[in-house]
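Lab manual, section 2.4: Encoding a predicted structure.

Procedure: take the sequence of the chain (233 residues), apply the prediction step described in section 2.3, and record the output as structure tokens. A sample record is shown.
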Amino acid sequence: MVYTPRSARRGALFAGSVAVLGLLTACGNGQTVHSSPPVTSSGTAAPATGDSSAPAPSDTATASSPVSSAPTGAPSTAPTRATATSGGGTTAAASTRCHTSELRASVGRNDPGAGQENFPVVLTNTSGRTCTVRGFPGAAFVNASGGQLGPNPGRESGSSTTVTLKPGQSAWAGLTFSNPGVSGAKTAKPAALLITPPDERDHLKVTWTGGEVPVSGNSSAVFLTVFSPGTAP
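Recorded output:
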């Protein structure tokens, strides 16, 4: 029988423990891959951030690709009303957020008043799961060639709430601007409005039938509000 010194046996046991520990560490070192921050490209709607604040059928919209034109008006089937809840953590928002591919976009009828033009921008959950939207949409007017008309809309101040959308339910955000005939702003007639859901990169395209919009000059700013439950105020 060959005698192994105690110190040698302890060294071997230590080395084996280190090797096992290293293997366990490598196997358990999973990392969550986060997508890079949203980017803005010319001629597309700016990706929206869910919780920032700053100053009727729809087209069946297709994410990130042109869609065939269809007249806007009231939805053919009236979506049921969604529910709004205040608060909402980042983790919950990330896990339940509505993705662009799960939504249909539309623009409701103008509700003018006091020299302002006011359009509801509506997102409807077309998926089979319950999801949420929170904050502002991104938006951009474009011509028939896809070129952007005017700057990106600004954001009106307001508190964001998490709007829970069951399948078929909708949320709306206001799109408002001064009547160009009153403000004297330079105008253009868009072919479409690109709408980006909160915290998403891909946009939805809706044929614009609301006439001329301000693109430069005095009082040419267009503003968006945060999402609320339903299809109109």
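Check your result against the sample. The CA atoms of residues 54 and 155 lie 5 Å apart.
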